[in-house]
Amino acid sequence: MRTSDDLVVIHPGEGKRYGHILQLVEAKETDGRWGAAMVEGARGAGGAWTHLHRGEAEGLFILEGELDLCGAETVTKIGPGTFVLVPAGVEHTLLVSSETARWLAIWPAALDGLQEELEQAAQEGRKDPEVAVRLRAEHGMEPGRRLG
Questions:
Q1: Fewer CB atoms inside 10 Å of the end CB: C or N, the chain?
Q2: Each residue of 75-128: pLDDT tens digit?
């Protein structure tokens, strides 16, 4: 909703839903600076690989649940109320370690459209992991190391 004085208000549940991600704001709405999404996951959900974003930082604010923040060399337990700043070019991923978790992601502008493209590829039956890797690369996500 946009108020008469041009403030944008996004009420709970509003936004574009892509599976476990609720896109709240796209970078095109922030002068190309950042996007924001609410992310939800169940135990074990998260990246099997770390990844990085060259040239753009990412912010994560944990709302519910416990997660493992995985870097290139470390694993840090984080929970509600924790804010994480991921500087540009730093490997990272989150793994849900509680039954469920929910966090706000303030992410690089380059990620605009990625979730929509991944969903469209899945609907078209293009579920090959290479498709996801290619789409992520087109949106500035470089793979890091494989976990496990």
A1: C
A2: 999 999 999 999 999 999 999 999 999 999 999 999 999 999 999 999 999 988
DSSP state of 18: E
Q: Please count the other Cβ atoms lying within 10 Å of the Cβ belonging to residue 142.
A: 13
Pairing label, strands 49-53, 83-86? unpaired
Domain count, the chain: 1
Residue 23 inside a domain? The answer is: yes
pTM for the model stands at 0.91
Q: Is 41 helix (H, G, I), strand (E, B) or coil?
A: strand
Which residue has tokens 């996007």? 35
Reduce the secondary structure of 60-117 to three states and give it as a string.
EEEEECCEEEECCCCEEEECCCCEEEECCCCCEEEEECCCEEEEEEEEEHHHCCHHHH
Whether 42 is covered by a domain: the verdict is yes
Dihedral in degrees, nearest 10, Cα atoms 139, 143, 124, 27: -20
**Whether pLDDT at 47 is above 80:** no
- Kindly give the interhelix angle for 129-138 and 114-123, rounded to the nearest 10 degrees: 160
Q: Kindly state the DSSP code that residue 28 receives in the 8-state scheme.
A: G
